[in-house]
Amino acid sequence: MQRRNFLVLSGAGLAAASLAACGGSGGSGGGESSSEVEVFTWWAQGSEKAGLDALVAQFEKDYPDLTFVNASVAGGAGSAAKDMLQSRLQAGDPPDTFQAHAGLELADYIDAGQLEDVSDLYEEYGLTDAFPDDLVTLLTLDDQIYSVPSNIHRSNVVWTNVAVLEAAGIDPSVVPADVEAFIADVEKAAASGVTGLSIGTTWTQVNLLEAVLMADLGSESYNGLWTGETDWSGGDVTTALEHFGALIELTNTDRDGLDWTDATQMQIDGEAAYSIMGDWAVASFQQADLKDGEDFGYFPLSGGEAIFGFLADSFTLPVGAPNPDGAKAWLDTISSQEGQVGFSLAKGSIPARTDVDTEEFPAYQQTAIESYAQDAICPSLAHGAATPVAWLNDVSDATSKFTTGASDVAGFQEELATIAESNASA
């Protein structure tokens, strides 16, 4: 399965530490083997927890002699979990495996010498053939691979409450042609007395920002933001930031105190017309017994080009893992056909593997499978595919300053340009 316009994430400038490849029994952790496998994630609630539960059930079936230890830390997009994880890694107390987003989010861990190369497992588990070539390229740095993906998610999805749209005089079957048309619909919905666009804390605002940038700039220019080929000071970026600001004005004022689950619940409860969130949100609509097409709808935010906002959850083998063999068993389960299908059915994602039967997947996932196969691919900023963590953190801080009214569009754009320049040269 080949896709076009994928951002090539090279190893240039990322001087990865020389890490030992995964070996046999005992691995890098040393000591006596243990039956416990500590798995560190931020899947602590909602559909994310349902997905984790599905993986655990498969793991216990695959490896009945091992005991899963849940080290999940609540907090959307893993902000709280990443802080705690970094403290543990720096203290020499790693979990057996931890969740990370595939892509440049891993660069900081690699540079710090905190991850083992798991390339051998790709051969042992047959993953090189099971995963798309583009995904394997994304995961490869200096001919080594440091994580195993459990799924594929899409970040740039607009979710709708059909009844709320109809009450506002908006035809739910008509997809806005571009961002300006979408803003007009959100304004119309807000005029009817509901929240036009529900949103949560900073990371969800960055998710909105990336969706607007993808739609307004198109895949080539959006991808160029992260390679230096697109000028952050350009007029097209100005337009996108103006659109972002207009949408923020149409969101709930308590956004900074909410997570994505709260923002989605506003839609489920009929308090909001739209949200822009990754497709893990579909599981929340399904769990609320809302019917696809009748109660809720969805479409990618678009400027005319079909774009798939890409991210993937993945798992690692940390240097010094207490139970490296247990971690490898977990990596086996999450990359297996059964593990990937069960997980994605529960979480709203699609399998990273291309050799699985997806006939039983619901309507939304069918559209995502089709889009992933043929649309232009743009790596998610908010979810670790586009940049290292430091760059994302800087953008998040600038976005929070902007959405709280502490800067204007010109100041926001200037700060984003400065952030890009400093991180590109780091």
UniProtKB/TrEMBL annotation:
Signal peptide (UniProt feature, chain positions): 1-20
Entry-linked PROSITE patterns: PROKAR_LIPOPROTEIN
SUPFAM superfamilies: Periplasmic binding protein-like II (SSF53850)
Family: Belongs to the bacterial solute-binding protein 1 family.
Matches recorded under PANTHER family: ARABINOSE-BINDING PROTEIN-RELATED, BINDING PROTEIN COMPONENT OF ABC SUGAR TRANSPORTER-RELATED
Keywords of the record: Signal, Transport
Keyword Lipoprotein: no
Organism: Brachybacterium avium
Superkingdom as given in the UniProt entry: Bacteria
Name of the protein in its database record: Probable sugar-binding periplasmic protein
Compartments, record wording: Cell envelope
GO CC field: cell envelope
Cited function: Part of a binding-protein-dependent transport system for a sugar.
Main location group: other
